[in-house]
Design a protein that fits this description.
The chain is mainly beta. The chain contains one helix and 22 strands. The strands form seven sheets. Strands 9, 11, 12, 14, 15 and 16 form a six-stranded mixed β-sheet that branches. It is rod-shaped. It starts with a strand and ends with a strand.
Amino acid sequence: ISCEANDTQSGISEYRYTIGTFENPTLFTGEWRSLFTKQGAVSLTVNFSDLAAGLEGVADGSALYVRIRVGNGVGLWSSEKTSQAIIIDKTPASTPVVGTGGKYTVYDFKIEKISISSSDGQSGITHYAYTAVTGTDPQTLAAAEWIEVTVVPSVTTLTVSNIVLDNLALVHGGMYYAAVKTRNGAGDWSAPGVSSAITADLHAPDIVFTDGPEEIVLNALPAELEYEIVEDIGAHIEVKLTLLLPTGGSVEYPPFTTAPG
């Protein structure tokens, strides 16, 4: 709590303050409390454990106020000044909803297109933190290295897209999760939100023609070609066929999706 006052004649001798609600100004202090000092500016910290009442019976989202008046050296008192509303926020921000750009990443060092959404209607969201993990159990999340970002200005609803988790060391076939948590204006962190699984697919599929001679002589199309696709991760493969002509040109066929094999 910070306050500045001045009296050019007899000076400052005492500050008095209360902490309470609008309806009950002394709810937490029980009475006006005194701070004897001749300083023109004061700053003090008041712990709820030192007050006459705590927050147990105060509803989440309620407002409390600090009221201050100042006395000078001859016993005259200033008018009462009231602080801005201080919102009681007993609950953390909502657990973030974490989205991904797909089930796979083709990079060994980053995961792209992560999105998050979280809200706190009382004190707002001031920070968020994210990380990439190989498991979603509490021990793995607690041991992770989180990257923290400050939200300026704070917002009641946070929506962020296209987050990139980089400087990673992903392995082919590894399964990873993006985890995000948010902190509200009261300093409480939410529970971590976790994305669906993201698999690192670092190897391109291999295609092998399985039937027929190495050279096929044609005088007309269509022609039947047999081939096998080898892919150890993806459930569906996009195939694009190109016919190279002896004249140097080519014919592109529309891509299609198929399963490996």
